[in-house]
Design brief:
Elements (H helix, E strand, L loop, with lengths): L18 E4 L5 E5 L6 E5 L3 E3 L2 E6 L4 E7 L2 E7 L14
Antiparallel strand pairs: 1-2, 2-5, 3-6, 4-5, 6-7
Length: 91
């Protein structure tokens, strides 16, 4: 009798706690990414440090790659609205 061990790895997904924040000059944004399993191994834009991606051009959606022990998945992050706020006309 031959036995085998099977390991089932969780498919990575984004956690709802993932947040994007516009920079003060509204030209870029940063994302704090929370994934349910695995590690972020790549981002289509910006600088990846741990689970934070900085310096993403405002208006650009990004794709991150998450690896959970060989179970690799690309996840999309939608850019926040970093447009200028509406300013009331002076009275």
């Amino acid at each position: 009798v031959t036995s085998a061990t099977v390991t089932v790895n969780t498919i990575p997904t984004l956690d709802p706690a993932t947040t994007a924040t516009c920079s003060a000059d509204l030209a870029t944004y940063d994302v704090d990414v929370v994934v349910n399993a695995g590690n972020i191994t790549n981002t289509s834009e910006g600088v990846l440090t741990g689970n934070t991606i900085t310096g993403i051009t405002a208006g650009n959606d990004i794709t991150i790659t998450v690896d959970n022990n060989g179970c690799i998945r690309d996840l999309n992050i939608t850019a926040p609205d970093c447009s200028c706020p509406v300013i009331d006309i002076p009275v």
